[in-house]
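Quick question about two entries, pasted in order.
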Amino acid sequence: MRVSRSAFYAWKARSAQIIPAEELHLYSRAKVLFAASRESLGSRELAKKLRAEGFIITRYRVMNIMQKLKLTVKQRVAYRVTTKRKHGDAVADNFLNQNFNPVDKNQVWAGDITYLKTAEGWLYLAVVMDLYSRRIIGWAIDKRMTTSLISRAMIKAYNVRRPPKGLVFHSDRGSQYTSKRYRALLQGYGIRSSMGDVGACWDNAVVERFFGSLKHDWIFKIHQPSRSHMKRDVAAYMKYYNLYRLHSSNDDLSPIQYENLASFSVRNC
């Protein structure tokens, strides 16, 4: 074994390190939570998850545990523009001006389209998010990036929420969102349109962050052999994101937890 006699006896004389059961449980939960996120949780978010399970732990200690267990997060790539406006279409005013924090649900929704690559070819995903809780309330996925795609996402969101008239929906100035057909859909629902400039990612930064999390924290972590596989994987992330992913803007709660807590507080006022 290429070990000297003295080194062997020195190793044998040393007492074995005993790791308490509590510490082993902590390591086990850290690895499970990290794996459930597809290796996307950084030390800050992993610390929040562990505290939510009852562990009393600092971020510094989580950093040491991640280093010891070799839990490494991959970095994200830069934003890319997906849609472009047709210059003949009407453009709505920007009602948000990067104010992404409404005081209640069903006041401001936001949406966008992103591209997803599989071994069979491209898919396009459209989402509708309630900015109050960051919850994805409607989404649709298809091989073509059309007005029909974003309309299906909005119809699903509307049927789930049944919001009051006057709600604001914010998007970029892509041709799908400026089309007459989509504007008519919003008008029929009593929804006011708001638009940032195309290519100005900060005008719809919350939705762009969601797409970044979806891609770099989830679907890029495994091979996507087919469109059907991608659709199932996107559905799995929607469930994970809405139910389990913590947000600092939600007081470190998931979107659904945040909405449920708010509803409970209102009922008990």
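Here is the second entry:
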Amino acid sequence: MKKRKVLAAALCAVMLAGCQAAPAETSSATTEATVGTTAEVTETEQTESQVQETEETEPAETTEAFVLGDDGFLPEYDTFELTSDDLNDGVWDEEIAATMTGENVSPELSWEPVDGAQSYVIYMVDTSAYFWIHWKIDDVTETDLPQGWAEGATYAGPCPPPGSTHTYDIYVVALRNDIDRARGTVRTQNPNFAQFIRGLDTDVDGNTGNIISYGYLSGEYTAP
């Protein structure tokens, strides 16, 4: 656990150091400058050392993708109950944060298996930072995920600017069939997030009607 704290602290420090950086590109691939060379980083090749900026960024161009209703991005679909021991009275616990005092571990999640679901997709997104994705994983088959279940670059805990409060939403989407991939890039703004999550309704063979239902949680976190 001490090792996780050191890693989380280092990660957050790098993120805070980049708060004056330009907003992330909205394409499906981002470019990272390195000493003497430039390497392209795809959505699936992000690592913890490839942090580009903090959540404190200027908004990307506003599009219809930014429209968010009271029921989230999937109001026409059925819902199932999603719970987390790390969400209490609308506030996310400190352990899940990538701050100096957090552990940068994914939150505990639980839900009942959905009839007909072959797999689930999980997204955690900061709606206060123009849909900055903190967690993205597809092909999930378990329905009881302990704290710290997420691995490697699929999860980066909340790390808003010191003293600020951001809102973090989690979606667990039950799918009938396989998909090509869950779109979006962890640790960057994703102004087309609405298109990404709604795109799960199309399976790998191009058939629509793939979303069965979804679970939804929303909570705040205030950085120390």
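Reply: Confidence is low (pLDDT under 50) at residues 1-11, 13-66. Helices lie at 2-17, 193-198. Hope that helps.
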